[in-house]
């Protein structure tokens, strides 16, 4: 049994301008203990989907099944109790600014009727877990964005959730802080076994910590699978665009050629002899447009974008593949 099953979920909003089909027949299965990414550009339907996961938004049709329970079958009271299994963190942290860090983390515990001293002890333990043991008495305004998100994570964990939903939780943070928060989430997943669902528009967030990913566009899942496989062989147009967006400095938009390829290999040093040998063998220049190394699920993956002469492209691609490189053609419009 999956931790979360999303079965044929559609969501339509009626607006003054007409109907908006935010989700169209979405099917996903999220296993217990997974870190599952949902990625897409703005307006793809990610936030609507994540809000359907805990029925903050009721799907227009379809079912959300959490640990075998159909959320649509529950009364409001049962739903409130079911929601305790599912915590959420947001881009904007949503802390209570007039309350101390400790009181922010205690808040859900007090709401649940936990006695003061017990709540404080648990909150202090959680603050230690997120690395903020010394900030209990501080007010959120005195904390950096990364620290505020740590408080939000401690608060989200206070109700002992089994599932943590993260809606663009690192989008307001700089790259170094993003990495630290993602490390913390990975730690929580490993130590506490909590299933984590990450909504993001950034491929690096997915490649840093997610095991599986669903790529969304126009309210539909365009492809879904293991991050390592999708990263090496994106099948959908939006998948290719998202993976490529991550490659810095390629200047791809300016190129008016269609013979651009993305090569990936899990030992970057191996690129060099292959490229150099191909140049010698085919007696032609190979234009390196960008190169980077990424950590995909703890494996260093080298990525290179190259321009190939059109008439020799298929032979060179075959040569790369024979030498163990994964090769994807990059479609450039124009
Ligand atoms: N309450 C609502 N009423 C009407 N339309 C809505 C509502 N919520 C979302 N939508 C529309 O549904 C579509 C999907 O929106 P959603 O916020 O889920 O996308 P998203 O992928 O999370 O985008 P972003 O990254 O910009 O937040 C958009 O066209 C949006 O305008």
Automatic annotation (TrEMBL):
Keyword Cell membrane: yes
Domain of life the protein comes from: Bacteria
One MF annotation (Gene Ontology) recorded for this entry: ATP binding
Keywords, comma-separated and alphabetical: Amino-acid transport, ATP-binding, Cell membrane, Membrane, Nucleotide-binding, Translocase, Transport
Gene Ontology process terms (BP): amino acid transport
Sequence ranges assigned to domain ABC transporter in this UniProt record: 4-243
This protein's GO CC annotations: plasma membrane
Pfam family, one: NIL
InterPro entries: AAA+_ATPase, ABC_transporter-like_ATP-bd, ABC_transporter-like_CS, ACT-like_dom_sf, MetN_ABC, MetN_ABC_transporter-like, NIL_domain, P-loop_NTPase
Family designation: Belongs to the ABC transporter superfamily.
Protein name, entry field: Methionine import ATP-binding protein MetN
Organism: Intestinibaculum porci
Organism classification: Bacteria, Bacillati, Bacillota, Erysipelotrichia, Erysipelotrichales
């Amino acid at each position: 049994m999956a931790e979360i099953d999303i079965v044929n979920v559609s969501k339509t909003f009626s607006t003054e301008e007409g109907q908006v089909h935010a989700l169209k027949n979405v099917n996903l299965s999220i296993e217990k203990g997974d870190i599952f990414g949902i990625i897409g550009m703005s307006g793809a339907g990610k936030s609507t989907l994540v809000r359907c996961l805990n029925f903050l938004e009721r799907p227009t049709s379809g079912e959300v099944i959490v640990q075998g329970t159909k959320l649509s079958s529950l009364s409001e009271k049962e739903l409130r109790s079911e929601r305790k299994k599912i915590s959420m963190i947001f881009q904007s942290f949503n802390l209570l600014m007039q309350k101390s860090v400790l009181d922010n983390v205690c808040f859900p515990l007090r709401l649940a009727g936990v006695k003061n001293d017990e709540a404080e002890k648990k909150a202090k333990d959680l603050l230690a877990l997120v690395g903020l043991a010394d900030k209990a008495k501080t007010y959120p305004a005195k904390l950096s964005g990364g620290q505020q998100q740590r408080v939000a994570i401690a608060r989200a964990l206070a109700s002992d959730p089994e599932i943590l939903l993260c809606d663009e939780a690192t989008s307001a943070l700089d790259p170094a802080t993003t990495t630290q928060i993602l490390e913390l989430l990975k730690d929580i997943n490993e130590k506490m076994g909590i299933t984590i669902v990450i909504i993001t528009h950034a491929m690096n967030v997915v490649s840093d910590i997610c095991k599986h990913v669903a790529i969304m566009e126009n309210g539909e899942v365009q492809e879904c699978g293991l991050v390592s496989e999708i990263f090496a062989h994106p099948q959908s147009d939006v998948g290719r665009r998202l993976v490529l967006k991550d490659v810095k400095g390629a200047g791809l938009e300016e190129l008016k050629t269609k013979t651009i390829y993305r090569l990936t290999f899990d030992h970057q040093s191996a690129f060099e002899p292959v490229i150099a040998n191909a140049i010698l063998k085919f007696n032609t220049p190979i234009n390196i447009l960008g190169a980077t190394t990424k950590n995909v699920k703890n494996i260093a993956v080298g990525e290179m974008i190259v321009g190939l002469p059109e008439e020799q492209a298929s032979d060179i691609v075959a040569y790369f593949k024979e030498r163990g490189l994964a090769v994807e053609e990059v479609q450039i419009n124009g």
